[in-house]
Design a protein that fits this description.
heterodimer; A: alpha/beta; Rossmann fold; 3 domains; six-stranded mixed β-sheet; 17 helices; B: mainly alpha; two-stranded antiparallel ribbon; 4 strands
Chain lengths: ~500, ~325
């Protein structure tokens, strides 16, 4: 058989009228490793979710082995031979490896001994070093992934989709993972591989497809790509002219020390972390997944519950503090702008104005026993104007806005509290290009006003374009500090990895 | 999407009007001022309990112990007066009991992280049992003459309207003011909409949960006093009735989404009127108690089904706009 094992033609998927992917053509050959790259929000996840039956196409066709078919559930996709390994594990933590492998395929009488023996033989045939009787929750990230892969192979998957498979792996585990993928390829399995790590894509894939803003940009043999060509295809223009701007030439001077953290511990994510944050500056915090950046600042701002607080000292403006809840931090002038606005950012049933006003009420506390409608409207309107939120009116529900405008509302909800120290966690994640520039301007404005701005970001160009000072985290602590003048992508990445 | 959500309360109201007109036309004796006043009087207590439930449901909880809050503190007041204690002392004791009960409920749910469904199921049973064992001599506690100064809250009429209905109206006004115009009311909506976002934004979520259950217990106790005044006694076995289902029915049917953050007092009132009409018609039709339960159960199931259609919480909406 020749021809692609899986093909999408003019695939479009819209959420609430906004296309996440728009007229994408994509073909996957038999036994190839196909890397899918693109910026956050380029449509990579949506594209693969369509193939895996997690979401259905709004329009367009999907062909499996040349036959038009559209899986409506992950189970249907699995029957078609398409399996997806998710970023978050989809294993049952309290069950053993063998039980997970055979989950959903148990015979009528489920003999544990039988499945242990079968699992043992199967894992050995794949040359996977995992014990079938081990409980999944006790396994490391790499072994969990192994189990997921084994399960996909067991289900006779012809196509296995990996969404950011290496994000949580150590370098040795990564190497092992690549061997696994190559082994799958030898078995004739086609692999789709979503990655932000371009080096990995270049190293392992046969072909690369670049998506941008939901559209297909280019598909070519990996040999014809280099890093610069991929980046250019991803952003669509030369990097020096992007919204991220050029390398900084001047930095803002340090203001007074606003925050000082000494030996902060929170097992297992934060280990003896010490650093300071100064007023009137943007401090960029870079680190790979698992570096404990978000956790550290969530402890500082009281978002993580005190139960997880294992020790160390946090000094805010010369005063030791220990916020047990965000409410206390907010009153002390600390605001945390979440990286996940849907889960902990905004109120979806409420209007824009009401969302912003909720932030105001939370800060004012007892000083506002009653809501003042006129105040709510005027505060809402002034912040919509201030942050240039594009909406028909202040009464539009936040859920109906685009990602960038939602993010602006979440930011406004915190800024209305007039924080002295404001922590942005991935402020431009899932935000459209135009809004990215506006949010960056806003961060600069806040630092110019003399506030202490912390920007946690996983995107190096963003870190370099905005930060006056760069902190690099690795394995639970800040390991290196650069002035923006001396920082380069290579230096930062080197500190984050080694 | 938007249109459906806006008109949910209107749909229920139209349903109420259709039923009302239908019954008026075809049910002999329904459309008489006497019967309509009885209808209102019968649902006034239910309505007040519905207000208490609304506050909790808007904040993403549920309070199944409301009927215990209705019967036990009010029963305690009646019993103490019967024993010869002074009225203020009895009232203070009843109030303290309701307050303590709400605090315990709230603490268990907010600080011990027990789901509200199970907490209030168990605590309601406990309170009702406590009443039977420790407070009440017999199942029906009689209204003593010493309490007659208080009887105005439930007995007689004002401008031809039965006082319980007026009490329902006053309670509605107070709860509406609380929910729509105070900071704490706004907090409750925020918490019901997205508890994580509320917390991160600086809303004191846990104290707020406690407040919800304290308010529910106090409103429940108030409903109990109104009930006792209107029927001259407190039938403490009311806990074993199906009243709590009616309360949930009022809230869900009125269009206060069980997923929280939606609806208001108007929804409770519309829901109450609809249930009142339904119950009254079933009584006139002389349906047996069991048959009435069958109908109520069916309506509740349909209402919950409709609620999860109108206010869906599936993966796809959770990921709207998320790429």
């Amino acid at each position: 058989m020749t021809g692609p094992v899986l093909e999408l033609r003019q695939a479009t998927k819209a959420y609430g009228g906004v296309p996440a992917i728009d007229g994408v053509d994509f073909a996957l050959e038999r036994g190839e490793i196909h890397a899918l790259v693109g910026e956050n929000g380029a449509g990579k996840s949506t594209l693969t979710k369509v193939m895996a039956g997690v979401v259905s196409l709004t329009s367009g066709q999907m062909l499996v082995d040349g036959r038009e078919i559209q899986p409506r559930t992950p189970l249907e996709a699995r029957h078609l031979g398409v399996a997806m390994v998710f970023q978050e594990n989809s294993l049952v933590p309290s069950m053993t490896v063998a039980q997970n492998l055979f989950l959903g395929q148990e015979k009528y009488f489920n003999r544990l001994r039988g499945i242990y023996i079968a699992a043992q033989q199967f894992l050995q045939s794949l040359n996977f070093d995992v014990s079938p009787t081990a409980t999944v929750s006790l396994l490391g990230a790499a072994k969990k992934q192994m189990v997921e892969i084994a399960r996909a192979v067991l289900h006779n998957a012809q196509v296995i989709i990996f969404d950011e498979p290496t994000a949580s792996l150590t370098p040795e585990e990564k190497k092992y993972f690549f061997d696994l993928v190559l082994e799958l390829k030898r078995r004739g399995v086609s692999v789709i591989f979503i990655s932000h790590a371009l080096e990995e894509a270049l190293l392992i894939s046969d072909r690369i497809t670049v998506l941008r803003d939901g559209k297909h940009v280019v598909t070519d043999m990996t040999a014809n790509f280099d890093r610069a060509r991929i980046v250019q295809a991803m952003v669509g223009r030369d990097l020096s002219q992007t919204v991220y701007g050029r390398h900084k030439e001047t930095v803002r001077p340090r203001g007074p020390r606003v925050l000082s953290v000494q030996n902060l511990r929170m097992a297992p994510m934060v280990k003896n972390n010490s650093f300071s944050i100064f007023a009137g500056q943007i401090t960029g915090v870079f680190g790979l997944v698992g570096a404990g950046r978000t956790e550290t600042f969530k402890v500082v701002s009281g978002v993580l519950k005190r139960d997880f607080f294992h020790g160390g000292e946090i000094v805010l403006n010369g005063r030791p503090v220990r916020f047990a809840v965000p409410a206390a931090a907010v009153r002390s002038g600390v605001a945390y702008v979440t990286e996940d606005r849907k889960v902990e950012g905004f109120f979806e049933t409420m209007s824009i104005a009401r969302n912003v006003y909720m932030g105001f009420l939370a800060k004012m506390g007892g000083k506002r026993p009653f809501m003042l409608r006129r105040e709510a409207a005027s505060i809402g309107e002034s912040w919509i104007k201030n942050l240039n939120v594009r909406a028909i009116s202040k009464d539009v529900k936040v859920i109906e806005l685009s990602g960038g405008n939602q993010q602006k509302v979440v930011v406004a909800k915190s800024l209305v509290q007039e924080p002295e120290l404001i922590i942005f966690d991935e402020p431009t994640r899932g935000v459209d290009v135009g809004a990215i520039a506006e949010i960056h301007q806003l961060l600069n404005r806040l630092a110019d006003e003399g506030r202490a701005v912390v920007m946690i970001s996983s995107y190096l160009p963003e870190i370099l374009a905005l930060s006056d000072r760069v902190l690099v985290c690795r394995q639970g602590k800040v390991v290196e500090e650069f002035s923006a003048l001396e920082a380069t992508e290579e230096k930062i990445m080197y500190a984050a990895i080694h | 999407m938007m249109k459906i959500r806006l008109s949910q309360q209107v749909i229920v109201f139209i349903l109420f009007v259709v039923l009302f007109v239908g019954f008026s036309a075809f049910l002999p004796g329904f459309f008489r001022s006497n019967n309509l006043l009885t209808l209102l009087q019968n649902v006034a207590i239910l309505g007040i309990l519905g207000l208490a439930m609304s506050i909790v449901v808007i904040g993403r909880g549920v309070d199944l112990s409301l009927v215990a809050s209705l019967s036990v503190p009010a029963g305690l007041v009646l019993q103490m007066v019967q024993y010869g204690h002074s009225v203020p002392a009895a009232l203070a004791a009843g109030l303290a009991l309701a307050l303590a009960f709400g605090l315990v409920n709230g603490w268990l749910i907010a600080y011990a992280d027990v789901p509200s469904l199970f907490t209030t199921l168990a605590s309601g049973l406990f309170l009702a049992g406590l009443g039977q064992v420790a407070f009440f001599k017999i199942d029906v506690v009689q209204w003593s003459a010493a309490l007659d100064g208080l009887a105005v809250i439930g007995r007689g009429t004002l401008f031809g309207i039965p006082t319980p209905v007026i009490m329902f109206g006053l309670a509605s006004l107070a709860v509406a003011l609380f929910l729509k115009s105070t900071r704490l009311g706004a907090y409750i909506y925020a918490m019901g909409d997205n508890p994580n976002a509320a917390r991160v934004g600086g809303v004191p979520v846990r104290p707020l949960i406690v407040l919800q259950y304290v308010l529910a217990a106090l409103i429940g106790a108030f409903a109990g006093l109104v009930l006792a005044a209107s029927i001259n006694s407190m039938p403490t076995r009311i806990f074993n009735s199906t009243l709590i289902y009616d309360v949930i029915l009022v809230v869900v049917l009125g269009g206060i989404g069980l997923s929280g953050g939606r609806g208001g007092v108007l929804n409770t009132i519309v829901g109450t009127l609809l249930i009142g009409t339904m119950l009254n018609a079933m009584t006139i039709l002389n349906l047996s108690y069991s048959a009435q339960n069958l109908v109520k159960g069916l309506v509740l199931l349909v209402a919950i089904l409709a609620d999860s259609f109108v206010n869906p919480r599936n993966e796809e909406t959770a990921q709207q706009g998320d790429i």
